[in-house]
Amino acid sequence: MKLPVRKIQLTLAISWAVLSFTPVQAQPVNSLLLGQNPTLNKTLVFAAPPPPSDIGEPGKRAEAGSRGCSQNINKPLTSSQKRLTALVPVYSNPEAVFGATIAEYPNFWFYVPYLSSFTYGEFVLEDEAQNQSVYKTPLAATSGVVNLRLPSKATPLEIGKQYRWYFNIYCKKDNQLIGNVEGYIKREPLNFALKTQLEKVTPHQRLNLYAANGIWYEALSTASELRRTNLQDTSWTELLQAVGLNNMATEPKVECCNLEKLSESSF
To answer: Residue 184 has what pLDDT?
Structure first.
């Protein structure tokens, strides 16, 4: 796999405002393997691939007006209130919410600021080329970082194909939409050399390989697993900081959504 990228040092200390989601930029370099770059084994980096050239609407990584069901929809939020947010890179020039995957059934990550006792969610995945839904499911999403894995019952993502996803939150009492984020995902091919290394390395080395080659969804899932097994591990925080999501780094991961068991429909 050869993805144009720009290396972003995750250890760079930058001050971010709560609403400042810095877009990433991408420049072309070759795919990386362990040993090809002297910093790869020492410092975690994320190399951002460019969004597809034929991407449509720019998407939305964070809801500008996320609020609870009982709050006035027209009342401005305070700077301390967190928004519904997709944990994925956002780009400028062109503007896009986009992440690459190598999986047939990737994990999608979101921060939800709402309580499930008052709200419910909906996840939709569309085949952009055919302009139709390929997967759609309701779900219960409580406050915190949630992980939605595309279930095996859904149509697997095809290599080289671009998809558009939507994550919506509604009030239970009146079905009013109170939060929405949306963006794009593309399944990239995995070359033999990188595939071979991924099968032999440690979890930390695997994370380095995913991040250095711009494979966002697998990098974040691996960082989450490292955080789960070792609360002192900083990979999760560093990866989110690399794409301007500093204020999400300390949010707890919560059990949410086994899409295999929820009521679902495939089209």
So the answer is: 95
User: Structure pTM?
Assistant: 0.81
Provide the number of structural domains found in the chain. Answer: 1
Q: What is the pLDDT of residues 161-173, one digit of tens each?
A: 999 999 999 998 8
**Mean pLDDT, the chain, integer:** 79
Range of the domain at 192: 7-248
Is residue 20 assigned to a domain?
Answer: yes
pLDDT over 80 at 266, yes or no = no
Question: Is position 53 within any domain?
Answer: yes
The enclosing domain of 56 has a CATH number of: 2.60.40.10
Question: 256: Cβ–Cβ under 8 A, 6 or more apart, which residues?
Answer: 112, 139, 140, 141, 142, 144, 146, 147, 148
Is there a domain that residue 144 lies in? yes
pLDDT at 257: 61
pLDDT single digits (tens) 136-163: 988 887 789 999 999 998 999 999 999 9
Provide the b/e sequence for 33-69 (b: ≥16 CB within 10 Å): bbeebeebeeebbbbbbbbeeebeebbbbbbebbbeb
Flag whether 255 is in a domain. no
